[in-house]
Amino acid sequence: MTTSLSPLLEKFRAHLEDEKGSSPHTVRNYLIDLVDYERYLVERMKLSLLSGTHAAIRGYLGTLSTDHAPSSRARRLASIKSFYKYLVRQKLLPASPAKLVKSPKLPKTLPKVLPVEEVFAILDMPDLKTVLGLRDRAILELLYGGGLRISELCGLDLLDIDRSGRIVRVMGKGSKERLVPVNAQSIRALEAYLSRRGELLAVIRKDQAPEAMFLNFRGGRLTPRSIARHLDTYVLKCALTRKVSPHAMRHSFATHLLGGGADIRSIQELLGHSSLSTTQRYTQVTWEQLQQVYDSAHPRA
């Protein structure tokens, strides 16, 4: 962020980065929300962050109701709640004014999951004659083969993958490390890319990241936005009409494992979820599976 932060928000930023180990993306979103909230307090309510009230927070959320989706308002409130919890823990406030503010009701949506044949079609799209095509194939195989978050994949370094053991060391949310097994296809795709990865570092340029696993054409660490853009290209080449995000590959990984007989607690560990309820949202039982269970289990079926 280029906007200068007030002292309290600077302390909160340091808390998120140094103590909680939040990702730069998460920190940025928190601060964007809180800067906007602080502006409302100061300009409209003549209040400081420390003097914010339950009514002021509700009033702020009310100003967002016409041009912000419920999910966006819920995120703003979550940022405010987290900030005030921090102030209470620091003994700067006796209680959080946001504690009893209710979040907007959000529609319950199932994550988008691709059929297996569509996933395979996307995986086959990169041009394996080029180093960038080999890189993209390895990326797609790891997204689907390991169920990695896009931020986790972009953060991988060369030393994070044990190719012989087919294990990937991932730094997840909150700087929690986990080991993720991947399939042989992913390792083969990775080795094919690594055999030519040096081409991306052949010309010395500024901001190169020789330790990073996945590099852009200039030798820098690949970003989530770039991967999403490349994925869009491959989806278009497959003539798929649906929108496919990198996270959809993670959803598909979890759902396909569940459909193949994996138990949900194992999937929880693979995805790096601290809560089982989060994993349950990431997985969905298809109508065909329900029909098969019904036909095999009901006495009158």
What shape does the CA trace take? globular
Per DSSP E runs of 2 or more residues, the count of β-strands stands at: 3
Structural class by helix and strand composition: mainly alpha
Q: State the order of secondary-structure elements, H for helix, E for strand.
A: HHHHHHHEEEHHHHHH
The CATH superfamily label of the largest domain reads Intergrase catalytic core
Name a few traits of the molecule:
2 domains; cell division; DNA-binding; DNA polymerase, domain 1; 3-stranded antiparallel beta sheet; chromosome partition; hpI Integrase, Chain A; mainly alpha
SSE topology:
Elements: H1 7-19, H2 24-45, H3 54-63, H4 70-89, H5 116-123, H6 131-146, H7 150-154, E1 161-162, E2 167-171, E3 177-181, H8 184-194, H9 224-237, H10 246-259, H11 264-271, H12 276-282, H13 287-297
Antiparallel strand pairs: 1-2, 2-3
